[in-house]
Amino acid sequence: MDASQLAELRTMYVFTPMEGQTWGLTYDSLKARLLERDPDEFIRIQEGGAIRGSTMHYGITLEGEELEGYARVQPEGISILDSTVQAAANFVAWLREHVVPEGVAMTFNTVWGLEEDLPDVPIPEVTRPRLVAAFLAHLEATGLE
Hints:
Blueprint: H1 3-8, E1 11-17, H2 27-37, E2 43-46, H3 49-52, E3 55-62, E4 65-73, E5 76-83, H4 85-98, E6 106-110, H5 111-115, E7 121-122, H6 128-141
Antiparallel strand pairs: 1-5, 1-6, 2-3, 3-4, 4-5, 6-7
């Protein structure tokens, strides 16, 4: 599969703090950031009990594209569903600007990377085109054909 085909593939991206770090993520803080962007944004918090824990399901529109995702405070992380590499890069930019504290690193993986037991990858502090390239390299590493 060539780079242009990989760029159009949609998958779930999972973003987490670097091991040993925290974003101090709460559902209230994430909800507030989402509603600042759009007061009509879709947000639902589901209590899951002792085993599954709670989850926040949300919607977000970035660069005109409507996306959905999930967030968890334990273990801490935010995902974006059915996303292209470009949409994932736009989401990372939004996370850095509005959710992740300055100086705290992020990692990412995809559902395909998780299925292949690929480790989480640190997200480099680079421009969006270079971030897209990092996401493409990850997709190639999953062995997609």
